[in-house]
Amino acid sequence: QLQLVESGGGLVQPGGSLRLSCATSGFTMNYYAIGWFRQAPGKDREGVSCISSSGGSTVYADSVKGRFTISRDNAKNTVYLQMNSLKPEDTALYYCAAMRTAVRTMCLISTSSTYPYWGQGTQVTVSS
Fold this sequence. Notes:
The chain is 0% helix and 48% strand. Strands 2, 4, 5, 6, 9, 10 and 11 form a 7-stranded mixed beta sheet that branches. A 4-stranded antiparallel beta sheet has the order 1-3-8-7, with no helix packed on it. A hairpin with a 4-residue loop joins strand 7 (68-73) and strand 8 (78-83). The chain has strands spanning 3-7, 10-12, 18-25, 32-39, 46-51, 58-60, 68-73, 78-83, 92-100, 117-118, 122-126. The protein has no helices and 11 strands.
């Protein structure tokens, strides 16, 4: 039973920080790439970041480069998204997703359809 559960969202002022967590269970996480995606009301789902199964490579959307950092702790079966310098346009429902990959396969955020397993999301609201 593959499960992903996001947490850590909330209301934060512009310039503030949040750390999102994606807790996984039911599978061996170190064989999976993990991606973070977000969807704002009235907008399409957008890829934010991903981390390879090995943890050796990461990908970030241009809109979050330099502000967000993705990491993984396989021992805790958890992936994190550290979000700094938050902007109102970061407001969205944030999802984590998992995709089984080969050991050296790079992750992608160009299309969310490649990720078959999804959490239910955690809300991030950036507002003053």
